[in-house]
Inverse folding.
């Protein structure tokens, strides 16, 4: 009995060691949050095939609030307070629609009341892209157990777009791609060794978002091939 | 009568192993298996009891009487097919609550014509449910519970003359990962579809051609 427990403990320690993340950040304008200003993190829900997971969106908001001490309004509170303007099928999908929306006096007054300066739109999802092996479990009157070995590859691809309510413009964009492989050997009991792909993607994205909002943090500009420089010229 | 051969003494190692993985462990695995298949039962019995937030929209300077048919107020989706042998989804109360909330926010005064048929109003609003459909992840192979609701909305003068009529199709989708069973997933999908219906009704109302002209006449100018 001790051997499976030691193996499980080792597995838990090693679980975070098999993920890889690529972050791409493009900053268009400074997005510092002043005292009293808040932000809200919302998940995109207008795609037919997927939507950003609620727990990922919550993770981003909570991490920003906890680690960067930023004022974050919960997405539920914001969407309910702005009803019907930020529902899945009525929310603005680009900044031109945002500009039109904030010309509505009731909407702009409610945004002021919330104290929200920035919206962070999160789009993407985590999925299992490959799996191998199998684990079989059986139980009988004399006992039971599981045997086998399974592994699966997860990929988390997310993009966050930062909109500035005051300027009615996009401030920046961050994309993250995290890959990881989870394992589950089963010797009587299954021993999961999970690559926390979604949690890693959340942590990395929140870290990059904090650099957008907190003055004094170094902001690293990463320019893709074909990206547009702030002046409108191709770099 | 027991003899020594019927119950031979077991070695200590075997006794320890049996205690570790004996009946308690088997029961635990059986309970876990039972909990796991809880969501697989074919019958669904749901009563949706929700409302929508107060909408942030312009209030029109009109008095509107709202009339709900029994079909809407008591709406229950019932299916007894091979794939859905015992489905009952009651949404009537939530639907009337949604339209009540919206009407209160959209119109200066609202009268419920089923309880006050002689109320003096500028127009009569009558939403009619024309279709409601559901889908589960097991049926579509997507990772969502889904609900669609279709309404025919009529706005008429108190005399019965038509001001405008239009169709609203609402959609709600709840991720499978968040819900343990069909009933909670379908409930959330219906609640989101009602929110969608409310959003489309409140935002689309002033854009319906006949309604737009009627509102302009009530305002006494251009919107």
């Amino acid at each position: 009995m001790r051997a499976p427990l030691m193996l499980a403990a080792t597995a838990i320690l090693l679980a975070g060691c098999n993920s890889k993340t690529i972050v791409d950040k493009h900053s268009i304008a400074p997005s510092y949050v002043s005292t009293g200003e808040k932000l809200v993190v919302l998940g995109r829900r207008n795609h037919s095939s997927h939507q950003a997971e609620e727990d990922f969106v919550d993770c981003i908001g909570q991490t920003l609030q906890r680690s960067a001490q930023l004022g974050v309004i919960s997405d539920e509170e914001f969407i309910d307070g702005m009803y019907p303007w930020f529902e899945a099928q009525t929310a603005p999908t680009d900044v031109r629609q945002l500009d039109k929306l904030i010309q509505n006096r009731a909407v702009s007054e409610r945004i002021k009341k919330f104290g929200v300066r920035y919206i962070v739109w999160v789009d993407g999802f985590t999925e299992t892209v490959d799996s191998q092996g199998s684990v079989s479990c059986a139980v009988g009157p004399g006992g039971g157990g599981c045997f086998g070995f399974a592994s699966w590859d997860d990929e988390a691809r997310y993009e966050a777009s930062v909109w500035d309510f005051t300027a009615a413009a996009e401030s920046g964009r961050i994309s993250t791609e995290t890959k990881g492989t989870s394992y589950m050997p089963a010797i009587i009991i299954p021993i999961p060794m999970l690559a926390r792909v979604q949690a890693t993607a959340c942590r990395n994205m929140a870290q990059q978002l904090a650099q957008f909002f907190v003055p004094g943090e170094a902001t690293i500009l990463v320019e893709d091939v074909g990206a547009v420089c702030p002046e409108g010229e191709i770099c | 009568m027991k003899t020594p051969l019927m119950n031979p003494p077991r070695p200590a190692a075997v006794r320890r192993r049996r205690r570790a993985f004996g009946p308690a462990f088997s029961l635990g695995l059986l309970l876990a298996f039972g909990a796991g298949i809880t969501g697989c039962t074919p019958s669904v019995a749901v009563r949706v009891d929700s409302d929508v937030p107060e909408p942030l929209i312009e209030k029109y300077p009109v008095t509107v009487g709202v009339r709900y048919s029994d079909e809407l107020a008591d709406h229950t989706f019932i299916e007894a097919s091979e794939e859905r042998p015992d489905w009952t989804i009651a949404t009537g109360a939530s639907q009337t609550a949604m339209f009540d909330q919206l009407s209160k926010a959209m119109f200066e005064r609202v009268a419920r014509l089923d309880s006050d048929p002689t109320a003096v109003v500028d127009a009569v609003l009558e939403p009619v449910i024309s279709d409601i459909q559901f889908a589960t992840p097991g049926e579509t192979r997507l990772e969502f519970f889904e609900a669609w609701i279709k309404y025919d909305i009529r706005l008429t003068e108190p005399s019965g003359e038509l001001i405008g009529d239009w169709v609203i199709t609402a959609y709600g989708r709840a991720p499978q990962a968040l819900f343990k069973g069909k009933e909670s997933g379908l409930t959330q999908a219906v609640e989101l579809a009602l929110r969608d219906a409310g959003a489309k009704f409140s935002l689309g109302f002033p854009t319906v051609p006949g309604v737009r002209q009627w509102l302009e006449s009530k305002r006494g100018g251009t919107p």
Q: What stands out?
A: Residues 48 and 220 of chain A are 34 Å apart (CA to CA). Residues 197-213 of chain A form the longest helix (17 residues).
